[in-house]
Structures are given as C-alpha cells and as structure tokens.
Amino acid sequence: MADYLVIVESPAKAKTIGKYLGKKYTVKASMGHVRDLPKSQMGVDIEQEFTPKYITIRGKGPVLKDLKTAAKKVKKVYLAADPDREGEAIAWHLAHSLNIDENSDCRVVFNEITKQAIKDAFKHPRPINKDLVDAQQARRILDRLVGYNISPLLWKKVKKGLSAGRVQSVAVKMIIEREKEIKEFVPVEYWSIQGTFKLNDEPFEAKFYGVDGKKTELGSEDEVKQVLTRLKGENFLIESVKKKERKRNPVAPFTTSSLQQEAARKLNFRAKKTMMIAQQLYEGIDIGKEGTVGLITYMRTDSTRISETAQQETKQYIEENYGAEYARTEKREIKKDKKQQDAHEAIRPTSVYKDPKNIKSYLSRDQFRLYKLIWERLVASEMAPAVMDTMTVDLTNEGVLFRATGSKLKFPGFMKVYIEGNDDGKKEEDRLLPNLEEGKLVTKEVIEPNQHFTQPPPRYTEARLVKTMEELGIGRPSTYAPTLDTIQRRGYVALEDKRFIPTELGEIVLELIVEFFPEILDVEFTAKMENDLDYIEEGRENWIQIIDQFYDGFEKRLKVAEEEMKEVEIKDEPAGEDCEKCGHEMVYKMGRYGKFMACSNFPDCRNTKAIVKDIGVKCPSCKEGNIVERKSKKRRTFFGCDRYPECEFVSWDKPIARPCPKCQSLLVEKKTKKGVHVQCTSCDYKEETN
Hints:
Structural class: alpha+beta
Strand content: 15-25%
Radius of gyration: 30 Å
Distance between the termini: 68 Å
Largest sheet: 6 strands, antiparallel, barrel
Number of strands: 30
Number of helices: 17
C-alpha cells in the first residue's frame, strides 16, 4: 500500500508524475476545481467583508469522495496543482475539503514535469501560500460582483443570456473603438516614384527620395510631374555609396502572450487552441522508450528568463550541431517590465536534446508544430546575432535623388534556426545590389510613378489584440485566451477573415456600460486593478480592502443604473425573403457563431438558414447554379453550389469568374504563406497576384 497521496488536476499529469515517484506514491486527479461559488446566486456575503460561500461543484461529489477515501489510507497528502494563483487556489480548496492543515508542508510545485524536477520538488514541500490564494480569490470575487450585478440588468433591459466582465468589457471596447477609427478614417493621397536602373547589364531598383539634397514627400500627381520634368537624359550619377555592417539580435524565448501571437501568425492557431495544446505538451506525452514525459515548461508566464542549466544545455547543443561560432557569447539582456510577475521561467523545452524531428512520430500534427515553434525559439534565443552587410546608394540627375538600399546576409547566426513572424506579413529580404561605386554612371531603364492612399488602422486579429492588452496591462497570462473566447461566445464580436468586428449587440451593451459603469471600461482603472491583484499576491495589500474600495463606488452606480437604465429593444432585421416552410418573413438573428436567418414565426416555425454570399461565379460542375460562400461547422470558409444537394460542387479555394487561358478550366485564388496567387484546378497555369 502507498504511503503518500499526490493530487494533481488532470489524469494526464497524474500519469506522468506517477511514473517518476514510484510505488510509495498514489497519484490522483481532482479534475480541476472541486469547490467554487454557486452558479445560481451571487455567493458573496457583501455585509460580512465579502465572504465567499463555496460549494462543491456539481458532478464533483464522486471525485471528492474518492479523494477522501484515498487520503484516509496514507500517511501524508501532497497537493501538486499548477504553479500559479489558480493552482494555489485549487490546492487550498482541496485542503479544506480533505481536512488538511494548510500551514503544513502539503504543497508541492514544479515548473516542468521531468523526473529531476519532480524529485527536487518533493524534497522541498511548503505550506499553501495564502497570498496567492487571496489574489485569485479577489479576482474571482471582483468578477462575480461585476458579472452578477450588471448581467441581470442587461437581461432585463436588453436580452437574456448577456454578461459583463471587467476584462472582457475592455476588450470589446477596444474592438469597437478600432472599428470607429476605421469608419472615420479619411484617406490621404500620396505618390511614389520607382526606378529600375542598370550597371553593366545588372539591373537594380531605387526609389525617389528627394530634390536638391532634401527628403521630399509627393502629395499629388502635379508634384510628381514637376519632379519628372527636371530629369534629363538616361544617365544617373552615383553620388554616394554607404556600406556598413549591421547586427540583428534574436528575440527572447516565449511568454504566454508572445506564444499566442506567434502561433496565430505562423500556425494559424486561435489563442484557445494554443493554450490547449501547450497544456498537453506540459502535462506529458508518451515518447516511446522514455515513456510519458513533459516536453515544455509551464505555459502561463510573463517572464523571458531561463535557468542557468537550460542556458548551458542549449549552448552545448548549438556548439555540437551548428558550431561554436553560432553560440551566443554575450549574456542576454532581460528587460523586465514593471507589469511582469516573473513567477516562472519562459516557455521552453524541458530538454533541448528532445529535437522535434526525433519525436515527431509520437506527436499529433498540431502538437509537433507548436513544440517545434517553442523549441526553435529557445535555440535561436541562445544563438549569436545575425550579421548583415547593408548598402545605401544615392543616384542623382539634375538634383533629383533616387535611393537604392540592399543587404546581404553575411553570417546567419540565429536566423539559421528561426525568424520571428510579424502581423503585417512582411518577409525578411536579402536583396543584393551590383558593385556600385561613387562617381560612376548608371543607365535609367524605367521610371514609374505610383499613386497610393493612406490606409486605416487594421482591425484586431487575436494576436494583435493579445499584444495590445499585454502592453496596456489588461489581464494576465492566464486570462487572454478565456477573454477572447467569452466575447465571441456572448455574440459581442465576430471574427471575419480572422479579424474582430463588433456586433450590434456588442455596441448596445458597451454603450450602456459606458453610460452607467465607466470605470469598468477605463483601461487605466483595469490595469491598476491587475496591479492591485499582484500586490495582494506579494502580500503588500489586503484583498478585502481592495474589493471594498472598488465596491463602494460600484454600488452607488448600480443603484443609479437600476433606476435610470432604459430598456433597449433589438429589432430583428428583415432578411428580404420568405420562409420556404411557412411563408412568413425571414429575419436575421445573432447566434453563437454570428448572424443567421430564422423564421419570424418562431416558435411555431423553427426554420433556420445560414447566410450565404454569392461571389458572382457560375458553378463549373452543373453550369446552372451560382457559387456561394459558406461556413463549415468549424467556421472555416468554403465555396459551393447554391443548388446543393442537387449539385455537390465544393472548393476550399475561391473560384474566380474567368476560365484558365490555357485549358479553359476553373481558376481559383490559392492562399499560401507567400501570399495569394491564381492557379488552374486542371493544368499547371499559375499567376501571381501579390
């Protein structure tokens, strides 16, 4: 019989840890929280210093009974939930439910699930950290006070099923304000002049820079003509050539935020999916002879530091596989932001020697892709800078200056392994220029003016929104993914082409919250509240006082809102067609996944239809129907015939309204990592579009 019981959150984690601890230990899973505030009521006694009323979560009775039985059979119980606030709270709730003294050495924490880390952790058990618990409890109670007071108001004044939370409301506000910026944006015209030149039959490009030695902006076609009329002849003089060496340093290992951003850019993962797969990699994967092992360190962190041991191991790996010249020689500077908790290391592989390609067969496709991204980021972060030879060349003709820039990768350094993505999709360029020397003449090939217009700020992608929230201090590593998920489930925002757009419902709810609860939507207020929670965790603030300060003003606003908030009727928008089942008018409704059409005769008629968009292309299969844009069950866009099911034509790629010039078959727009191009579905015809 085992001497010790270890309780973790998940069966996967229990399996991995049980393998390392041996027969004296029984490892069981609590399946997350066992106690929580009740769903049916506020569950917070405001009069008694905000005392929470915890109950056993519905369905957790059998789990708790099993844990109590197991706890009676052992000498000691260890609580080994995740090493963060929520994990500490889970351990505290378990201690109360199992009658374990929270001041005894019952708590075990580790940032990676490896044999050595687990054994070391069990040598240093500690009491439950009540400051961590209080910080988590304060967040839970604050969110409950906001949600369970404002939500019933919204149900009464707008519609049932709505909610309002501190962080989610600010996120919705950011999306709505960005949409307003886009609608109010006034484009400004500007021009550029692109030139192609030749030296000894070697072509190169240069752009107009200025006139008479001064940088000049071109705002109209007339200004362009004035510049072009000054040019004389075919020759341009190379006035100056500047060469210099430039170093580019690698980026730091992943934090939760940067992992979510990069996984969105490079793997097309939603934040929720990234965190789910990262959890699997952390808790353990069976990799053959070695058995089940945690592949990455803890994935909820805002720190970029890594342990000395990990640094040395990574350096050794780099020297063995790439050469000593590729290893970093200078110590990496870690810039610590005042908003960082820095409780854990950065997200990294538990061992750099678990090369992704060697364990690929044991991982699912998505697990492999995310693990490879984390592994490459760590290795690159400990590599030498990349060295570029850059060249800037000024060409003149009658005082008109064109500038050519080029670069050549002299030493790849970290870029041999990994280059960080960016939100604009710009590619790393390595453009060479001919051997240009001052005083020589080059020949003009083409001078081409181009008209442009300034663009509005882009809508938020998940990655861009997470990055902005982090910069503003809104939320913490554990809250980004749940926040994005909640605002979509509530129907406040929708994703269109992977970018957030606000819904009418989101705008209505925000308007009411702005009017009656402005502090909840104040970015500085929300960021200050996050800092206060950090101070509670550090033992510098009392959680009851923090909540009391907030609730004092909130309660007054609540009373005003209950009296003065007017009811808002959201009228169903006519869809412009009749129901084919009963003849009543079809209307647009807002559902979990955005707008859809439903019969206005509901509940007598429950007919619903997806909204489809005609793209103006005849079906190439039946020749009768039109191609429409649809959404799959997983919200992925595809294209099909509007005569379905009579015609079953479908395509993931967007058909275009002209035939292939080579074989007359269907042409489609194909999206790849390099951009969008048009290609034929039958032959090898292909044309680049951007």
